[in-house]
C-alpha cells in the first residue's frame, strides 16, 4: 500500500500528467493513421524525451505504446487497413461487421475489449509485482545471459516461415553492436580506420532509420492513396455492456496476452493468434469467424492490448526488452542512469508502481477520448500517403539530428532507411535487428562476467534458474528442429 | 525423379518469396562472407585472454551466424517458387536512394538556413517531387512543417542549431530566432 501511494506521488505532477495525456492521445491519433504506427512515433520522439525526467519521458512513450493499438482498430474496422501491424487480425471480423452496417458495434466492442485487455494485464502486473521483486534478485549474470539468449532464439523462431531471415538479421544486429571501440582491450572492431565508426552504431539512429525513415521512403515510393472511411453513427458505449456476454473469451485472451507479453521475443502476434484460435474453437458458430464474428474481434483486440503492460516485465525486472518498442524504452532508462533489472525492483519499487499506474490511467484516458473523437479520427485517416511520407521524413530529421547535431548520424540513418525499405518490400522482419543490437550488448557483458566465475561448463547452469533457462532453450531448439522436420514429413504422406 | 530425402529437403526450405528475394539473399551472404574474411584485419586476438573476453569473439559469433543463416536463406530462396519482377523491384530499392539524397540535402540546409526555413522549404520541395501540384495541399504540408518546428524547437526546446543565415538578422530578432526557430 505504501509503495502504491509513493507511486501516486511520483505521478501527481503536472508535467507527468501532460506527458501522459500527450502520449495517450497522440498514440491514438498515430495508431489511427495507417502507415505510421507506434514504432515510428516512438523512434521519432525518443530523443526529445531525453531532456525530461525519466518518468515524464517514459509516460509519454508508454502512452503512445499502450494507446496506438486502440487507434489502429479504427482503420482496421472501417477501411480494412490495420492502423498498426498488430491490428491486422481485427480486419478479419471488423471489416465484415462494417459491411453489415455494424461499424459502431464493431468499434465499440474493439474499444471495450482493448480496455479490458489493458486493465486486466496491468492488474496482473500489480498483483505479480511482489513475486517479481522476490524472483528478480536471483537473476545474476548467468541467468540474464541465458534469458537474453532465450529472447534472441524466441524472436527468431517466432517468425514462422522467415526463421532463416530472422536469424541472419538478429545476427546482423549483434554484429552492429560489436562495431567500434570494444570496452576490454580498447581495440577497434570493424571500424575500417574511420573515425565516425569508432563510437559504433547508435541504437536510436539505427531504430530511426529502420522504422521511421524507411517508412517515409516506402510511403513516398508507393502509389498515392487517400482512404475514405464512412462516418460512424450510433453510440459507442454499448460495447462495454455487450462485452459482458463474452467474459470467458475476453479473460482467456487477456491471459494469453499477459503470458505472451512476458516472454521476450514473442509478443502480440502469437497472443492474438492463440486467442483467436481459442475463440473459434470454443464458439458455437465457428463458421462466422472471418465473416464478422464479435468473438473474433474481441479475442484479437483483448490479446493485443494485454501485451504492452506484460512486455514491461522482462524489461523492468531483468533489463531485457522483449520487442522493438521496449528496446527503445530501454534507451530512455539508460540515458537517465536508471538501470532496469533486479536492482530496480528492489530499490525503486515506487518508480515501477508509478509506471503501472500511468498505464492504468492512460487506458482510461484513451477510452474517454475515443468515445468522443472517433468521427474526427476518421478524417485524419484521409491524409494522402505521400503527404504522410513527407511529414514522417521531416519528423525523422528531428529524431536523428537532435541527438548530436551530427550529419554523419543522419547519413547512417538514411542508409538504414534504404535498408529498411528493402526489408519492408521483401516482407522481412526489422525487429530482430533491433533486438540483436540490444540483447547482443547484454549478452557480451553478462557472458564476460559470468565466465570469470566459472571453472567448468557445468558451473554455468549450477543454479536452479540458470538450469531451467538452459533446459527451456534446449527444449525449444529441439522442438523447432525435429518438430519442423516431422511437420514437413506429415504434410506429405509420400515422404513419411 | 527426386528421392524422398531430396523432396523433404526442398519442403523444409520451401517458403513464400517476394520479387527480389534471391538478389537480397545472395547479396547479404556475400557481405557476411566478406566481413568474416576481413576479421583478422578488423579485430585483434589478445594474448593471455579467455576466449569469451577476446575482442574477436562476438564479431566471430555474429558474422558466423549471419553467414550460416544467409546460406540457409539463399537456399530456401532458391528452392521456393519465384514471382516475376525481380529487377523492377531492385530498381525500386535503388529509387529509394533519391529520397535518401533529399533527406541529406535537407539535413545540410539546416545549419545554413536554420530549422524553420529549411523545414518549410524541404516540405514544399518534397511535396512537389511527390507529384502534388495543388497549392492548397502543398501549403497545408508547409503549415504542418511550421507546426513541427514550433512543437519541437519552440515548445520542447529540442537540441537543434540555429542557421548561419541568422547572423545577418538584427540582434533582437537573431536571439529570438536562435531560441525559438
UniProtKB/TrEMBL annotation, chain A:
Question: Does the record bear Membrane in its keywords?
Answer: yes
PANTHER family xrefs = TRICARBOXYLIC TRANSPORT PROTEIN (PTHR35342)
Taking every annotated instance into account, which residue ranges of this chain make up the domain DUF112? 17-435
What are the record keywords, sorted? Membrane, Transmembrane, Transmembrane helix
Kindly provide the name given to this protein in its UniProt entry: DUF112 domain-containing protein
Q: Which organism is it from?
A: Parasedimentitalea huanghaiensis
* Entry's transmembrane regions: 12-33, 109-133, 139-158, 163-181, 201-221, 315-334, 354-373, 385-403, 426-445, 465-486
| One Pfam family matching this protein | TctA
TrEMBL record, chain B:
Q: Does the keyword Protein biosynthesis apply?
A: no
InterPro entries tied to this protein = DUF1468 (IPR009936)
DUF1468 domain: residues covered: 23-161
Q: Which residues cross the membrane?
A: 22-45, 57-79, 99-126, 138-156
Q: What is this protein called?
A: Tripartite tricarboxylate transporter TctB family protein
Q: List UniProt keywords, sorted A-Z.
A: Membrane, Transmembrane, Transmembrane helix
Q: Which domain of life is it from?
A: Bacteria
